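Q: I'm writing up a methods section and want to include an example of the input and output format. Could you take the sequence below and give the corresponding predicted structure tokens, formatted cleanly so I can copy it straight into the document?
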Amino acid sequence: MGRSEAIGVWKYIGRLKDNWDKQIILLLVEIPQDYQYEFYTRFYEKVNCDNKQIIVLDLTGHDRIKDGYVFTLAPGKSLPSILFPLDGPGLPEWCRSRGCMIIMLVRRMDREDKLLLKRQDENCRPPTLQPCNIPTERVDLLSTPAERQQQSRLLDPRLDKNLTRHSKCYRPHHLFREMPHLFDDISAQFSSGDEEGLEEGELLQ
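A: Here is the clean output for your methods example:
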């Protein structure tokens, strides 16, 4: 785990806006109400001590994750404009009165993701989805083909019509399934006190 200048990180994130091979995932760290509260508070203060720098996570063991960062937001402060538009609900109400900590991951998109975006661009009807990917809702067989296609898009959470290049519809539980040890590794780095400085150029490697 290390630190990098915040301005360099946000410039790097800005370069990914038109990059179809990467996606930005934002995960809000909820404030624990049990014995982990002291641990959370200690790490929050560690991240929040210098708003000109951002914590850089070492996730080299996870091939699907290119980069990982941790940053904090003061009470009532919004996300950096470079992260908009969001594909999701945004910050919850409690962030207006309390500071929050956010994990930002840069995920490498796989072949299935790229094909999905290609279908989205070409306005093609998506292929039949596995039952585990869509809610169990009835499709009206008397509707027109265009209506059935639109309904199929609404049923598939990956085909949200607000999909953008910068922030693809991607649920946190998919991360647990795809990389079950990811959050264990992040937690281990939270508890470690070792830090190393990084230069802006290292972000692009």
